[in-house]
Specification:
By secondary structure, the chain is of the alpha/beta class. The protein is built from eleven helices and ten strands. The radius of gyration is 17 Å and the shape is globular. 43% of the residues are buried.
């Protein structure tokens, strides 16, 4: 059956329905509506994506967990099938607040949390405010603490005019992710799925705003937000954590893995030496069963 998702973005999901066979729902937040997947029944798990991905990134994990779990996978505002308002506060604080609103609305009870890329500070921002509502945590190539490291490939996307042209005009960030964030070449239908929500200048507004929201100096408004999340991570230290790390990630390198282990020395770690930033794409055959076992 063909499904078209309404909103700021009119998307025909038919071309990817065989690999993203999930029903999406919508939830109103200030300024627009979020799209999210809510599949299965059982203990809940929330999958929080990053930039420039969307819940499509978690498609294999959704399929692998929904037989025994309630799986919730939102698209952040401006991402995936969510609305893409042009005048909107695309900041870390806003994304955390939207996740708070969605989870309060769905009221799943204590959740297991899976985070990747920007999903790290968004998910951990919510989790540090509600440690009693979190059971277990799975970390996939992300950070929730400040770092002076910014690869030039991302830094150039922050430049005025040049960054706008590259990210919003040429779609270089999302296109680059389909090549530079993986070690295994993507099949055409998978690449299509990643790019489907980002077909025009207007569709790519959040991709650019995420890039600009990376805090590289104390004067940046998101610097204090990330610093506060880091200081509050101690509230989660006794929560079981599984870190699944792509060893060939040129953005979230082993420097960030060491940062997680400094803060969570008891975490279980599996490093996939031949996987890139989209670690679920490169190592899903091993990751999905490991996550199933961990989220017992």
């Amino acid at each position: 059956m063909q499904q078209t998702v309404a909103g700021d973005l009119d998307v025909d999901l038919a071309p990817i329905r065989n690999i993203y066979p999930f029903h999406t729902q919508r939830f109103a937040v200030p300024g627009g509506a979020l799209s999210y997947v809510d599949e299965g029944a059982g203990p809940p798990v929330a999958l929080i994506h990053g930039n420039p991905t969307w819940s499509f990134y978690y498609r294999r994990l959704i399929a692998g967990l929904r037989d025994t779990r309630r799986v919730i996978a939102p698209d952040h505002m401006g991402c995936g099938l969510s609305d893409k308002p042009q005048r909107y506060p695309y900041t870390l604080s806003t994304h955390i607040a939207n996740l708070e609103r969605l989870l309060s609305h769905l009221d799943p009870g204590p959740v297991d949390l899976v985070v990747h890329d920007w999903g790290g500070p968004i998910g951990m921002g919510w989790a540090t405010a509600h440690p009693e509502r979190v059971r277990r945590i799975v970390v996939l190539n992300t950070a929730a603490f400040l770092s002076p490291r910014l690869p030039w490939r991302i830094a150039v996307c922050r430049y005025p005019l040049v960054g706008d042209l590259a990210v919003r005009g040429l779609n270089a960030f999302a296109l680059g992710g389909t090549v530079m964030a993986v070690e295994r070449p993507m099949r055409p239908e998978v690449r299509y799925g990643y790019l489907l929500p980002y077909r025009s200048w207007r569709d790519r507004v959040a991709i650019q705003r995420f890039v600009r929201d990376i805090p590289m100096r104390p004067a940046h408004p998101t610097w204090a937000v990330v610093d506060a999340i880091d200081r509050n991570l101690a509230a989660l230290r006794n929560h079981p954590m599984l870190i699944l790390w792509g060893g060939k990630d040129w953005c979230f390198t082993d420097h960030f893995l060491a940062g997680w282990l400094e803060r969570f020395p008891a975490a279980e770690v599996v490093r996939f030496d031949d996987a890139g930033h989209y670690v679920l794409e490169d190592a899903h055959e091993e990751i999905v069963p490991r996550v199933r076992r961990f989220l017992r």
